[in-house]
Amino acid sequence: MRFVIVTGMSGGGKSTAMKMLEDAGFYCVDNMPVALIEKFMEIISLPDSDIQKVALGLDARASQSFEDVNNVVMGLRKRYTFEILFLEASDNVILKRYKETRRVHPLSTDGDLMSGIRRERELLSRMRAQSEYVIDTTNLLTRELKAELDKIFVQNQDYNNLMINVMSFGFKHGIPQDADLVFDVRFLPNPFYIDDLKQKTGLDKEVQDYVMSFKEAHEFLDKLTDMISFLIPNYVNEGKYQLVIAIGCTGGQHRSVTLAGELYKRLKDKGDYGLTLRHRDTK
After folding, report:
1. Looking at the DSSP assignment, which residues form a beta bridge with residue 112?
2. pLDDT, position 17
């Protein structure tokens, strides 16, 4: 039997994960009272049980102590085999998601949403440290999250918890605040000054062909790919869960878009990490 505990930050994607696991044939139970968790584990672990895949959703609620949940789950690890999937996102993204949906955070007091987010992150830190899978959904679309979950729980692929986000941007719009590595490609000729390319972007083949016609673009990609390939296993060993690689040009329309796309192609299917591509400032 495969047993998965799904937990994490409110607004981090737990509901999406539970729906995906249910679609994948898991028997899903959400928000079970802490007093019933151990009994539930005993029942589904009986030899004659017909249930082969189970997902139990747990989250921090004002109505019960999550420290009690932590203690029960950690105690059960001595007798049962199960995995923990932890979903999270940055404070600012969670705040934005709550404002968009107009939901009330389960731990916010007096309407102070950010204090509730920070309190929840602190409460969940112990569970996060014990998790086999940590997925940061800050830069993930719903379909991309589902694809990552499918790799783990349907295709049973190895997963090292590192999510790499390749992003293009324009310096005139500001450097992405969540970037871990920032690279400036303004040393390359700018297609903006060519009439036929000015209104196009790095998503168009004409712009891509122009940018990649310079040997410096290929040399840059070779050196960057080599460095990223060196860094990835070291970041994994260090326990890093998300790596944002930001490539910038002046406006974020031509050079950065082209080179971010080329880097994405080079990194794709080269490891068991997750990989996404974003063009922040394209029209």
Report:
1. 109
2. 95
| 147 and 8 fall within a common domain | yes
Distances in whole angstroms, Cα of residue 84 to Cα of each of 56, 61, 87, 129: 9, 18, 10, 10
> 217 is written with which tokens?
């673009």
Statement to judge: residues 271 and 201 lie in one domain: yes
pLDDT digits 0-9 by tens, 14-27: 999 999 999 999 99
The yes-or-no verdict on residue 167 having pLDDT over 90 is yes
Print the domain residue range for 208. Answer: 163-279
- Give every CB contact of residue 263 below 8 A, 6+ residues apart in sequence: 166, 221, 224, 225, 228, 245, 247
- Tell me the two tokens of residue 62: 């004002």
CA distance 70 to 238: 24
The predicted model scores a pTM of: 0.75
Number of domains the chain contains: 2
Tokens of 121: 């992150």
Single-letter code of the amino acid located at 114: M
Angstrom distances, CA of residue 31 to CA of 28, 62, 119: 10, 12, 19
Does any domain span residue 215? yes
Q: Give the pLDDT mean for 84-113.
A: 84
Q: Is the pLDDT of residue 201 over 60?
A: yes
Question: 124-154, pLDDT tens digit by residue?
Answer: 898 998 999 999 999 888 988 998 899 899 8
DSSP 186-243: TTSPPGGGSHHHHT--TTSHHHHHHHTTSHHHHHHHHHHHHHHHHHHHHHHHHT--EE
Please give the biggest Cα pair distance in the chain: 72
| Measured distance CA(12)–CA(89) in Å, rounded | 5
Residues 133/137/141/145 CA torsion (nearest 10 deg): 10
Closest to 235 measured CA to CA, from 274, 266, 263: 274
Q: Measured between alpha carbons, how far is 274 from 266 in angstroms, rounded to an integer?
A: 14
